[in-house]
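stage 2 :: seqdesign
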């Protein structure tokens, strides 16, 4: 096997959830693909670090020339509700439903001392400041139901005790240890619809 292909397989196999056999299939696809496609693919990969940045409001992602993302800049969205998610993929999953039009806040994980992730490592202070300033009526904790979820939910509730806001969480429609990112549409819609 050519050395350049070995290096490409190693790079692809480094990606999460990609095993060596899958990496080999991907390089074979790229090798056989149209050169225009490969060129465009390469250009888009390069743009990841240069043309995408963190939104200054929700801490999701936006284009490099914008301070805030298209969701945060959309004034037609419900300004009374903010949905707190663990990561950007959860936000994308919820937005794909095209039903709920509220604000978001991305924590970028849950509290997990086992994994050395403490409150100071996440976007909690920004959330608390936002809630106090913008006076939301409801904060939805759309956090994946697992052990870390309990610690994260309790931390948020304890820090908002003196704020007049309705704090809700997803209903049991979302199974324990289930991930928002992988939930089917009906399950996810019902989890939000019957939140309490």
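stage 2 :: out
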């Amino acid at each position: 096997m050519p050395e350049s292909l070995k290096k490409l397989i190693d790079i692809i196999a480094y990606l999460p959830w990609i095993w060596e056999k899958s990496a080999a299939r991907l390089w074979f696809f790229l090798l056989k693909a149209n050169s225009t496609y490969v060129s465009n693919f390469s250009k888009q990969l390069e743009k990841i670090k240069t043309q995408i940045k963190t939104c200054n409001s929700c801490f999701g992602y936006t284009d490099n020339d914008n301070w805030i993302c298209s969701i945060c800049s959309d004034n037609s969205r419900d300004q009374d509700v903010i949905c707190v998610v663990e990561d950007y993929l959860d936000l994308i999953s919820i937005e794909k439903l095209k039903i709920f039009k509220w604000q978001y806040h991305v924590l970028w994980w849950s509290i997990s001392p086992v994994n050395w992730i403490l409150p100071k490592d996440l976007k909690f202070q920004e959330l608390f400041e936002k809630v106090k300033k913008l006076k939301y009526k409801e904060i939805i904790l759309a956090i994946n139901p697992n052990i870390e979820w309990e610690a994260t939910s309790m931390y948020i509730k304890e820090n908002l005790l003196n704020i007049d806001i309705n704090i809700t969480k997803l209903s049991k429609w979302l199974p324990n240890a289930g991930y928002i990112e992988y939930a089917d549409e009906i399950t996810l819609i019902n989890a939000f619809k019957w939140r309490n």
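stage 3 :: structure notes
- The longest helix spans residues 35-50.
- The CA atoms of residues 41 and 167 lie 43 Å apart.
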